[in-house]
Amino acid sequence: MDTHTQVGNQYNNRELSWLQFNARVLQEANDKKLPLLERLRFLGIFSNNLDEFFKVRYATIRRIVEAGKTGRSFLGGISAKDLLEEITLTVIDQQAHSLNILSNIQKELRKENIFIINEREITPDQSKFISEYFVRYVSPAMMTIMIGELDEFPSLRDSAAYLAVTMVMSKEDDTFEAKHNYALIEIPRTIDRFVVLPPQGEKQYVIILDDLIRHCLHNIFSIFKYETISAHMIKITRDAELDIDSDLSRSFIDKISKSVKNRSVGDPVRFVYDKSIDKKTLQFLLNKMGIDKTDSIIPGGRYHNRRDYMNFPRLGRPDLQYEHKEPLPIPGLSLQGSLFDKIAEKDYLLHAPYQTFMYVIKFLREAALDPKVKSIKITIYRLAEVSHIASSLINARKNGKDVTVQIELQARFDEEANIEYAELLQSEDIRLIFGVKGLKVHCKACLVERVENNKTIRYGILSTGNFNESTARIYTDYTLFTADQRICKEINKVFEFFEVNYLVRKYNHLIVSPHYTRKAIYHLIDTEIKNKKAGLPSGIKLKLNSLSDYKMIDKLYEASRAGVKIKMIVRGICCLIPGVEGMSENIEAISIVGKFLEHPRLFIFENGGNPKVYISSADFMGRNLDNRVEISCPIYDEGIKKEILENFEIGWRDNVKARVISIKNDNAYVKNNKPPVRSQFKMYDYYLKKLEVK
């Protein structure tokens, strides 16, 4: 086994396991069965994931090194310094692989008469178009900094792409003493990275903005006399962890705002450069920027910020994209009538994106207008850029409803958007709660109180995903609509905890972090162990985004050693090592990566033949179990329970069952195994058949 990856042969390292996940994203980009433009999108996702990884996880480990600590206890046995080196080597290998994949995709695009050209391939007609485009759109938005003569190097923006320009000066130019003059051009973010050129017959042409600028270098630097000029791309990634000050005189919104602004000048943690850059230019830049050996220095290709491939132009070629399928309705639940009347009769489950998220919008819209509704309470973690959720809440307040919003201002990389929404909601006289000190509020809950026959009846929504109509089109998530007063009463207790958080409530149905989740899951696992020993039906099925908590892993190992069969679908980080004799031989683990981001958390316990099923906002990570407010909700409706169990089996049956053992073995799996049959496509057919039966 790979000792670099494993800790005492019991766990996979969290960071290296995450890199395995991103390698599986890269596998999708390399899958020739997928439409070409979708493969480009996966390249963009791979790059975007890597940027966020360095901003947060790599930055955290680097802080440990700079503090003079080894971090072995935090990192599970591997030293922080060794881990930084391992990450850098792995990323260099993955980046090289991604460049080969991109090259192959471009060859396939050429067969489809789509040509991504560079500045050396431009025809005279295209040159004229490009020059006009540059003058009209690019030049006004471009930032060019002459750095050769500057005493202090300018602060580069986090994750922005720059062209490092080197001019070998002519002897006729006596303006500069040095033989070389240097400049930086920031690639404008306000302009599409891919510029579509006029077609030539059936052939379509696209030029990357970087190359368009390269073509116009002589225009930009026409005032200088130089013998040669060249431009190579660089970018830095900065530490994005928030440092929140303790000034009691400032509001929480102000503190978060300041911390988010400081993120733009955080220490650099990764420097990526075009490996063909001149060595003298590279050293000049490293010296000026103060980049040292604790930073990750990655030689890359000609282009960076390949996350932009997520928005590659569609070029009117639906044949090179996923087939579009409209979200389906929930059988038996119409968007035309009253949702409250139907939910009062039975629970309903929404499985996005296969079924339309409009049910959530409709629920809030109806609550905003219904004279029987007196109050709405909701948790918000991430909202869409243009949010119908927010407008529905404002509408409800204008109609005299009591609206309470718990908004999480520290939702990573959505802090600015949430601050803006907090200020908007506050201006509309909506009551805001900014969480619990020391805890993020990550649960997704909504509660409506309605007066019926002089009694207050509660209606609730609990979800595994955010109340966000944009992500609901690409994230798979479960959302439960219920009027079960046992559950709704306990949702209300969670909101009471937000208000008076020194009182810990008791729950008989919901499992709530940070006070109860760990203990409750341990108890459920212990029950399966007892049932196995007693000869009763036993088993555990889990669907998670991440599994990294060592104590929880040890508990699953204990169940495995007792003979309990465990099946896990873990999309991302998996620190548990399955299939090891004497430790985890009864555990199987797979990962599903495909068209949609697998986001639900499911906990299924066989319970002697009467399965207990929970949907949850919590992963099995220390932060979800101990440092966040999370809700796991039992499914009591037998029809919904059956549906969830069937969905799990579809996901399990139709995907390659690859054990996550080590970075070495997992990369070999990604490289050599055929892509799986994707359950995500079969899930749509599953719901279509349910509608036909209805």
Describe the structure.
- The strands form five sheets. Strands 12, 13, 14, 15, 17, 18, 19 and 24 form an eight-stranded mixed β-sheet that branches. Strands 16, 20, 21, 22, 23, 25, 26 and 27 form an eight-stranded mixed β-sheet that branches.
- Helix 1 packs parallel to helix 19, helix 11 runs parallel beside helix 12 and helix 18 runs antiparallel to helix 20.
- The chain is built from 20 helices and 27 strands.
- It folds into four domains: 106 residues, Methane Monooxygenase Hydroxylase, Chain G, domain 1 (Up-down Bundle), CATH 1.20.58; 176 residues, 2-Layer Sandwich (polyphosphate kinase like), CATH 3.30.1840.10; 161 residues, Endonuclease Chain A (Endonuclease, Chain A, 2-Layer Sandwich); 182 residues, Endonuclease Chain A (Endonuclease, Chain A, 2-Layer Sandwich), CATH 3.30.870.
- The longest helix is centred in the first third of the chain and has 32 residues.
- The chain has 694 residues and is of the alpha/beta class.
- Helix content is 39%, strand content 22%.
